[in-house]
Amino acid sequence: MPRYIFLTLCSGIMWIEHDVQSIFKGPASPYFPVCTTPLLGDAEIDDFLQQGLEAADLNDLEETRRSNIIIPDTQSECTSHWLNHGGFLHTLASKNMTKLYPLTSARVDIENEPELDHIQRSVPTLIAQCLEGVRDWGKWGWEVIHFWLNSTQITMESNKPFQLYYDPGTVARYSEFWLRFILFSLHTFELNPGDNDVNYTMGQKQVLHKLKELILKESPTNVDLHSQLLDVSNLFISQEDFESNSTSPIKYFCCVMGWDSAKEWWR
């Protein structure tokens, strides 16, 4: 049985052990003994209490697991019209978020997956270069491209140009989100259908496979990495799933990112 000791802070002495303890104030407070030896000397009672403590630990673990399983119940107090409208509950129904959410991390396990360090270093650099390339168009008199780039219509330019200047913190945050998506894709695109509900197209799987082969090389060049990352990004960004019954990888990733793993609740 665990050893319980009541400690009192005393002047001049850090701590003194006592055999009794009270949860009440005042000199007439009732005290109860603190066991440092088997309870009543009965090993069976001690074993019974120990089993109870172990069972309580298992119940806590099970409660944590259940709290992280998504249940598409519209009557649940943790749901909202926004969650249903965004498809979060339907997309992640029955998923264990304790296993799924960690796949969205931007951290890389260098010891077990050292090749992913290439991705972690390349994505922010590539995005910074892309943004600088957009700014460079003005030097060549191509400002009209900024209006087309900002448009949501493929056949019509926007009345406002694409934003060129952002707070450095904003660029870093956007870069991290895209890095997390690329790492999430590399971790899930080869999983078995039973373990993975992310629907990748054949083209997306092919470019992800090429990217994985590239980073497994001893020293891939930045040029090759950036070129392959651009191919991967293009296929994901240009994908339309409005008329499809399947959820695109980007939308699936956003659904997972909506989960707060610390609070076991939606953000």
Q: Kindly, what is the distance between the CA atoms of the first and last residues, rounded to a whole number of angstroms? A: 41 Å
Mean model confidence by pLDDT: 77
Radius of gyration: 28 Å
Q: Which term fits the overall shape?
A: elongated
Strand proportion: 5-15%
Please tally the β strands and state the result.
Answer: 6
User: Structural class, judged by helices and strands?
Assistant: mainly alpha
- Structural domains: how many: 2
How are strands sequenced across the largest beta sheet? 1-2
Helix segment tally: 10
Residue stretches low in confidence (pLDDT < 50, at least 5 long) are 1-9
Characterization of the model:
With 267 residues, the chain is mostly helical. It has 2 domains: 6-67, no CATH class; 81-266, no CATH class. Helix content is 47%, strand content 7%. The protein is built from 10 helices and 6 strands, in the order ββββααααααααααββ. It has a two-stranded antiparallel ribbon with strand order 1-2. A two-stranded antiparallel sheet has the order 3-4. It has a two-stranded antiparallel sheet with strand order 5-6. The longest helix has 25 residues, at 43-67. The chain is elongated and about 90 Å long. The two termini are 41 Å apart. Mean pLDDT is 77; it is low at 1-9.
List key phrases describing it.
267 residues; two-stranded antiparallel ribbon; two-stranded antiparallel sheet; 10 helices; 6 strands; 47% helix; elongated
Q: How does the SSE layout of this entry go?
A:
Elements: E1 6-10, E2 13-18, E3 20-21, E4 32-33, H1 43-67, H2 81-86, H3 88-91, H4 97-100, H5 116-136, H6 144-149, H7 168-188, H8 202-215, H9 222-237, H10 249-257, E5 259-260, E6 265-266
Antiparallel strand pairs: 1-2, 3-4, 5-6
Helix pairs in contact: 5-7, 5-9, 8-9
